[in-house]
Design a protein that fits this description.
This protein is α/β, with parallel strands linked by helices. The chain has two domains: 2-217, 3-Layer(aba) Sandwich (Rossmann fold); 224-495, Ribokinase (UDP-N-acetylmuramoyl-L-alanine:D-glutamate ligase), CATH 3.40.1190.20. The chain has helices at residues 2-7, 12-24, 29-47, 62-76, 94-102, 136-148, 186-189, 193-196, 209-214, 257-268, 283-288, 301-307, 326-334, 345-348, 354-360, 374-380, 382-385, 392-403, 438-451, 456-474, 480-486, and strands at residues 53-58, 81-85, 108-109, 119-124, 152-155, 177-181, 199-203, 219-221, 233-235, 245-249, 273-278, 294-297, 315-318, 339-342, 368-370, 405-409, 415-417, 423-425, 492-495. Helix 6 (136-148) links the parallel strand 4 and strand 5. Helix 10 packs across helix 19 and helix 10 packs parallel to helix 21 (480-486). The longest helix has 19 residues, at 29-47.
């Protein structure tokens, strides 16, 4: 249950429905607020035993109510506590009003707070439900706290962050630690929110998990549990073609390295046979730098048609180092009935005619995996990328539906989505994966898993996770060559 809770994501709106459903089931809502506030107080005492003063900043809603409970609990534990409120506490309603009435600490207006050395700020102003820019009074306090460098413990989400998108709404606290309840929200894991939350602690306040799951959407965190059942299983009679055939298209003689990285990664992710499809001028370079990877000449459309006459050649990676040209578009469309990972130049090549690509792969099972970074995503889906109302999760799902593809929207907060609306957010990738050739390796891993028969979405998600694991295992300073060599396949137990 603990792992499931940490993998799950609920939007603020969905969490509001969970709270309402819990109350309707007979659970006393103020009891949930009491548990939340006490969890915050416990975290504050554990993390900051040397604090000279806890400054609890309370907002005008239920997040503020959690703050009043925390302030009372901290005072009862013997801590020095001062309380500051946004707006008139007399206007509080419901559980927040009850929490304020039970709190023995007389508060002061929020603007009166002046951070000093030894303070720990408990931010209970807005939480995850904020949908507008913070008022100037709050923005000023955020700036003052940031300038003073005092620690911040956020309740639910640092105030100023949009819990649905992770975007900053005018200004936001940079928390050292965040205590949230039941599940994380998208704002905890999408940038820039992830960088502003510090360490996130998910606390169970007693809502039955069945109620939480009734409101869960199709987005969650990327982890083996999401795709392990689809991993390839080896059998005693396996041979190289049954383990999957992957073809990676090489660029010209001066641009072969990217394709070789993809091919090596595809082989190490478990594909039984990997071929570099190379133009004539690159044959010698590719042959001189590969051993287990085979090299075939595929120069033009006629060569490709001949190559495709062997139906065992099922899966392809196109784009790394290939160059943006009519040729790459022709090759991609010729592969409409095969499985294709389209990366880098392959994505950019369709910026002026994306519908040709979408129509080619638009029917039947999902055969296409797209792996754009931010710029490439905007070239292929300009209207989606420009819609500020959408989160990165929303954008990736919209793109996957339009393209009938598994879409890997890359970044430090990579999102993987399927046409049916499933989405996973990845968080295991270290910052040092941002190095030349890293994306080529990722494309090859996904291609290798596709070649072994994994469905497109599961192959994409597993590839992203394996890529992150390899990067974390290697450590800072890795190169793409190191990364390709470090890929370790995951597989189901062998079938006798």
């Amino acid at each position: 249950m603990e792992n499931e809770r940490y993998r799950s994501l609920l939007t603020p709106a969905a969490m509001g429905r969970v709270d309402a459903a819990a109350a309707a089931s007979g659970i006393v809502s103020f009891g949930l607020m009491e548990k939340a506030g006490h969890a915050v107080a416990a975290a504050a005492l554990k993390l900051y035993p040397g604090a000279l003063r806890f400054a609890v900043l309370c907002g005008p809603g239920n997040n503020g109510g959690d703050g009043y409970v925390a302030a009372r609990a901290l005072r009862e534990a013997g801590a020095d506590v001062e309380l500051y409120h946004l707006g008139d506490p007399a206007r509080l309603r419901g559980d927040a009003a009850t929490a304020h009435a039970l709190c023995p600490i007389k508060g002061s207006p929020l603007h009166a707070y002046a951070p000093t050395v030894g303070d720990v700020v408990i931010d209970a102003i807005f939480g995850a439900g904020l949908a507008r820019d913070v008022p100037q009074e709050v923005a000023s306090v955020i700036v003052a706290v940031g300038n003073a460098g005092v620690p911040v413990l956020a309740v639910d989400l640092p105030s100023g962050l949009d819990g649905r998108t992770g975007r900053v709404l005018g200004a936001a606290f940079r928390a050292d630690h965040t205590v949230t309840f039941m599940t994380r929200k998208p704002g905890h894991v999408l940038l820039p929110g992830r960088q502003l939350c510090g360490r996130v602690e998910v606390h169970d306040i007693g809502i039955p998990w069945r109620i939480v799951m009734q409101q869960a959407g199709q987005a969650s965190m990327n982890a083996p549990a999401a795709w392990a059942a689809a991993l390839p299983a080896l059998s005693a009679e396996a041979h190289k073609f049954r383990r999957g055939h992957l073809t990676v298209f090489s660029g010209s003689a001066t641009a072969t390295g990217a394709a070789r990285l993809s091919a090596e990664a595809g082989l190490r992710s478990g594909a039984g046979l990997v071929v570099l499809a190379s133009p004539a001028d690159a044959l010698n370079a590719n042959a001189a730098h590969t051993t287990a990877v085979m090299v075939n000449q595929v120069e033009d459309e006629a060569d490709l048609a001949d190559y495709l006459s062997d139906e065992r050649r099922t899966t392809f990676v196109l784009g790394p180092g290939f160059g943006v040209s009519k040729k790459i578009r022709t090759f991609a469309l010729a592969l409409r009935n095969r499985r294709l990972v389209l990366d880098a130049d392959g994505i950019t090549a369709f910026r002026d005619e994306p519908h040709a690509l979408f129509e080619a792969f638009g029917t039947g099972e999902t055969r296409l995996v797209l792996t754009p970074h931010e710029g490439e995503f905007a070239r292929l889906f300009p209207d989606v990328a420009a819609d500020d109302a959408l989160s990165k999760i929303d954008m990736t799902i919209a793109a996957a539906r339009r393209a009938n593809a598994a879409v890997v929207y890359k970044g430090a907060d990579t999102v993987i989505a399927a046409p049916d609306g499933r989405a996973l957010v990845n968080e295991n990738a270290p910052a040092w994966l941002a190095t030349a050739g890293s994306g080529d390796v990722l494309a090859g891993i996904i291609g290798g898993l596709l070649a072994q028969g994994m469905p497109a979405f599961e192959a994409a998600a597993a590839g992203v996770w394996l890529h992150g694991e390899a990067g974390a295992r290697l450590g800072e300073g890795l190169t793409a060559d190191d990364l390709a060599a470090a890929i370790r396949p995951l597989s189901q137990p062998a079938v006798p």
